[in-house]
């Protein structure tokens, strides 16, 4: 079933940023159809930050791609309030364009008039703490700075739902921690809804209001946790570590149950 997109003027009529209803997804394999996701039902509320957590191969990215509309479910349905913005692990910036021009490209595709694009791009760069970087080429930016530009480009799509597929996984621990702070700040300032995929338990707890754990082979919702720890949080905070340990034990049980190592 195709992803249905709510109209922008229906903002007062919806009670969810994304609604996933009994979604399953299969792919063809050597032994026939392989079930990757099985009967997933999940809502993301307006302004909510949800992390999808699970072992490699459990279907987290597949589910995110379905919500983004990049693929269609084999069964069930997905509705989103407006078209989601998607941010990948790789920054996917065009190296022949400056930081600002990469953002302007997204603005142009979104129908923003030419005379407004530079000002809007500079506003977005300031939002991600890269003021003055409009004219910098991709090779002049550090890994963390590139991901900030990628975040600004995603925000340029003017979506109320941001989908993030392990966007900080390739970064060093200090840079990742700084970007956790930036993402939390931007989420709080903008009121965006975020659906964030990770296999890092502490990252999931550090960021989210709700952690959703997927089982493996096929992916099903195994358990959810409401994270009532006030922001700002740190990875090393005792409440974060305590909840992370609880979730890790459940995750290990899921991995053992499915025979993964």
UniProtKB/TrEMBL annotation:
InterPro entries: AAA+_ATPase, ABC_transporter-like_ATP-bd, ABC_transporter-like_CS, ABC_transporter_ATP-bind, P-loop_NTPase. SUPFAM superfamilies: P-loop containing nucleoside triphosphate hydrolases. The keyword Aminoacyl-tRNA synthetase does not apply. It comes from the Bacteria. Coiled coil: none annotated. GO terms for molecular function: ATP binding; ATP hydrolysis activity. Residues 18-243 form the ABC transporter domain. Keywords: ATP-binding, Nucleotide-binding, Transport. This is ABC transporter ATP-binding protein. It comes from Streptomyces collinus (strain DSM 40733 / Tue 365).
